[in-house]
Design a protein that fits this description.
By secondary structure, the chain is α/β, with parallel strands linked by helices. 37% of the residues lie in helices and 21% in strands. It has helices at residues 48-62, 86-99, 119-128, 142-147, 154-167, 184-196, 214-217, 225-241, 260-266, 297-303, 317-325, 336-341, 349-357, 372-376, 378-383, and strands at 19-25, 27-28, 40-41, 71-78, 102-112, 132-138, 171-177, 201-206, 245-248, 251-253, 270-275, 279-284, 287-292, 308-311, 332-333, 367-368. It has a nine-stranded mixed beta sheet with strand order 9-10-8-7-6-5-4-1-11, sandwiched between helices. Bound molecules: iron/sulfur cluster. Residues 28, 31-32, 35, 37, 39, 78-80, 113, 136 line the site of iron/sulfur cluster.
């Protein structure tokens, strides 16, 4: 029980949400034409030491805001974090552990690109304290990998998975569907092959054209909307048949292997965001804040600290909460709204009723859970919670 008595619209926590840490390493060998992440083509040698120093200074600036709290997970994402040496990752994780206690079973994930994965390097990350690796595979079809501008081949992807499994017992594969010229059979083949490796987690994203990307300016021939919907269904069927639980729009896990770090986002937990362009969210006894950093690595390293912090207006919290929670196939327990927004559940009662009336939420008073229709028409469902 974390929410306490307060005036209407007033945020009040008696217990703060779980805390995670995200560290962004923003460099890649080459920029993929579909990518809108804050990632920058590596020019010369990476300023690993300088950048890790900046991350640690950034963390130190945040410590007064998270005094006495423990980290439930760490996610080192990018960009291509596997461009950083195991020694740099070790230095970063040691610095985090020295400043903020980790829960005993904390999940520590590092994203790796099959084009930069080597057995020795992966073992080095393991030695540094990483206990989960997430591989950006995207496809096992060489033509599709080429069309996506990836730096690895299908065989390199297969080898990287085997090496990752030799070093880690918790491995995620990122796949994409709806690729240029892709047929349903090809999409099925990719997913079936990914599942055959017996990893613990699979993420399958539909390729979308995002502004500020090469694909947005020069769109490749993508499959139609209906064909992509069939591909999503095929992913769901194949993953279920392989014993995976579909727990979020794009995420599938073996029992007990859901990604704790991402679950924390979807359950509106708190997180520190370190690194160029990283975002964070922190709750205090009477408010919820967001913080954001310089996007350009050089500027970030020069400033190494929060560039912008804003308090989320209480009236925006219900929508922000739902934007995350309604991605979860099983939704969330109803009391989680109070616990994670600091607002009384009564502020959304009418909206919950309206969404249930439209058949977009299940008629379960103990859970906030989208119906199948609600998941298909997620935007319509979210609209209900807009202020
Ligand atoms: S490797 Fe990943 S982060 Fe880097 S450009 Fe490609 S999609 Fe973006």
């Amino acid at each position: 029980m974390s929410a306490v008595l307060r005036a209407p619209g007033e945020v009040r926590f008696s217990a703060l949400p779980p805390l995670a840490l995200y560290a962004h390493l923003p460099w890649c060998v080459r920029k993929c034409p579909y990518c809108d992440f804050n990632s920058h083509e590596r020019a010369d040698a990476l300023p690993e030491r300088e950048y890790v120093d900046a991350l640690v200074a950034d963390l130190e600036g945040l410590l007064p805001s998270v005094w006495g709290r423990r980290l439930r997970s760490i996610f080192i994402g990018g960009g291509t974090p596997s461009l950083f040496s195991p020694e740099s990752i070790d230095r970063l994780l040691a610095a985090v552990r020295a400043r903020l206690p980790l829960e005993p079973d904390a999940e520590v994930t590092l994203e790796a690109n099959p084009g930069t994965a080597e057995a020795g390097r992966l073992r080095g990350y393991r030695g540094a304290g990483v206990n989960r690796v997430s591989l950006g595979i995207q496809s096992f079809n060489d033509k599709k990998l080429l069309a996506l501008g990836r730096i690895h081949s299908a065989d390199e992807a297969r080898r990287a998975i085997e090496m990752a499994q030799a070093a880690f017992d918790n491995v995620n594969l990122d796949l994409m569907y709806g690729l240029p010229g892709q047929t349903l059979a090809e999409a099925r083949q990719d997913v079936a092959e990914g599942l055959r490796f017996g990893t613990t987690h699979l993420s399958a994203y539909q390729l979308t054209l995002e502004p500020n990307t090469v694909f947005y300016r020069k769109p490749p021939p993508l499959p139609e909307h209906d064909a992509c919907a069939d591909m999503q269904l095929a992913v769901e069927e194949l993953a279920a048949a392989a014993g995976f639980e579909h727990y979020e729009t794009s995420a599938f896990a073996r029992p007990g292997r859901r990604c704790r770090h991402n679950l924390n986002y979807w359950e509106f937990g708190d997180y520190l965001g370190l690194g160029a362009g990283a975002h964070g969210k922190l709750s205090f006894a009477d408010r919820v804040t967001r913080h954001e950093r310089h996007k350009q690595p050089r500027e970030y390293m020069a400033s190494a600290g929060t560039v912008q912090e804003k308090v989320i207006a209480p009236r925006e919290l219900p929508f922000e909460f739902m934007l995350n929670a309604l991605r979860l196939v099983q939704g969330v327990p109803a009391q989680m709204f109070d616990e994670r927004t600091g607002l009384p559940g009564s502020v959304i009662l009418r909206k919950l009723e309206a969404a249930r009336g439209k058949g977009l939420l299940e008629e379960d008073p103990l859970r906030i859970r989208p119906t199948h229709r609600g998941r298909l028409f997620l935007n319509e469902l979210l609209q209900v919670f807009l202020d």
